[in-house]
Amino acid sequence: MKYTLSVLVENHPGVLSKVSGLFSRRAFNIDSLAVGITEDPNISRMTIVADGDEYVIEQLEKQLNKVIPVIKVRTYTEGEYISRELSLIKVSCPAKQRLDIMKIAELMGAQIVDVSVSTMTLQFADTLEHFETLTDLLKPYGIREIVRTGTVAIEKDSVLFRK
Amino acid sequence: MISGAEIMVKCLQEEGVSIVFGYPGAVICPFFDELYRTDIRAVLVRQEQNAAHCASGYARALSTVGVCVATSGPGALNLITGIATAYMDSIPLVCITGQVRSDVLGRDVFQEADITGACESFVKHSYLVKNTADLPRIFKEAFHIAGTGRPGPVLIDVPVDVQTGTIEEFVYPDKVNIIGYKPSVQGHPMQIKRALEMIKNSKRPVICAGGGVLSSGAKPKFREFIDKTGIPVVSTMMGIGIMPSDDPQYVGMLGSHGMKAANITIHNADLVILCGARVGDRAVTSPDQVVEHANVIHIDIDPAEIGKNMKTSIPIVGDMKNVLGKMLSGIDYTTPTEWREQVSAWKAEYAPKPQYFDNCVEPKSFIASLSKIVRPKAIMVADVGQNQIWCANNYRIKDGRFFTSGGMGTMGYSVPAAAGAKAARPDRDVIAVCGDGSFQMSLNELATIATENLNIKIIVMRNTVLGMVHELQDKNYGSRYAITELQAVPDFVKLAQAYGIDSAIAYSNEEAEKYAAEMLKNDKPFVLVCNVDPKTSSI
User: Fold this and answer.
1) Which of B219, B270, B503, B512 is the one with CA 20 to 30 A from B197?
2) Which of A75, A106, A134 is the last residue of a domain?
3) Structural domain that includes position A131
4) Is the ipTM here above 0.90?
């Protein structure tokens, strides 16, 4: 099962390697890790999507908590958070297919950020499920490259992680 | 103006450090030069790994933070095994390494190694110092992190220009403020209440005591608790010494290399109380079988250990001393006599049996008789291999200590760790027991022992094979002794004498006991070589 975790860390050099090193040495499988500075420049927030059972996720949470610059760890439960991932998708696009791809982009809410003679690049910020739908639709045209940021997540409503 | 090197030394003084174990090199020179002008003792080891082991023995003997120092590159890399050994056994160390100039970091200059990167997975925390002004805070934090919560090694890597750089004045911080590091030490009152209830309802309880009882200083509280309840006790290897070996309530060390009685006890219990024990695979080989018929209360300072290796009914996160103190005030339980008698019967039935061979010392009975002649509070340091198991199961500990590399199983640990322990406790008998394999991994430290007046007694069990693996080859590999025969075993007596250390070889238990009694009479180092038959088994 997939789990989404939010991790607050001190914004020091070396913290990312301390956290990411943990996954390989404890044999945890992670799907994505996204990190960036928060509203407080001294603190960064990571969103981790990991695969595993309850035991693995509990261990992951506990081991993360042991890393000294880690301030707080939380595993989200279904429905209490909103998550998004940004992706850039470069699709093969000769002139005669431009209209088709523009229609798909419009339908899915993707933005066209770059066009060339033979390709078109879409920017898409949405959930993982919608990303999969979009790529399914684009596949017949020939997806050349995909770049993804990994999932970021935030609590729903007025709930604050940092409180 | 004050230099970084001077600040480092002042930080050590602020932390009450009186001794460091180390090895010099170009980029740690500023530090050692400043240290030279103080009364902090600097012990020169003969290889850096042993500096970490010395610091470990020192830390364990005094329940304090041990300090070791090495230079950049190979010096720092040699420390690694020592650091990892301390990490596995939760020993508090501050390891200081010199590093190349910060402006050339990452350019693969002479003796450069990314030591903070290399050690990441077995330090509790590490620092690569970028500014001289950060040194006081980092040292304060390092000692705090190493010595509190679940203890462990902390590495401080200091580029040479940070040591030579200067700042206006030295101010040592009063306290630390690390937002992500606040160990829970108290133990949750609700969980403690539930645990007491569970104990009350148990018929066949057993306590499994580990190193955490010793490192939290909970030994007196532990004694009180077991006296009050009468619960039988088994221990892990790290927990040896929590109770006297001959205490009727103590069954012995459990595990794949432990006492059969201890294993039978834990497998027949209906309640297992884990006290500062992480249930390593060598201690409990089949934790799933244990939990099939037993509830488990797990008390540990490190929440990550609870539930990691054994399913836990009631987790209690806290310092052992605090938690036991709270449990003591609420406990009202006496272990059923039937169960106590059953456990005692197992203990008597499965006592270790000596195996005598001609012209050889029988190591198990020799270790047992050695425990009778050491002075009170003696420190026994066992190495790794068959010698470790002989010591763990046969040394009849009273009020002293038992040190060994329990988690990592690092060969060569005993001699430097004993030297460190002797530096900490010059008034005590400190004995290192090793095999001819492990002795040859750190016998260069005989020079350290001789020059630094670290008068330890070394017992070398000389069986001319790497016994533990040799035994495994007998069991699982058709007695094909692939590289386990130590063909050119040197004359250890002559070797010790070459370092100016007295030595003798014994071919029988009578001889060994005679030499042992003699060597313990004076305060000089001694190497006692015991000729042991390679067929002698571990258990």
Assistant:
1) B219
2) A75
3) 84-150
4) no
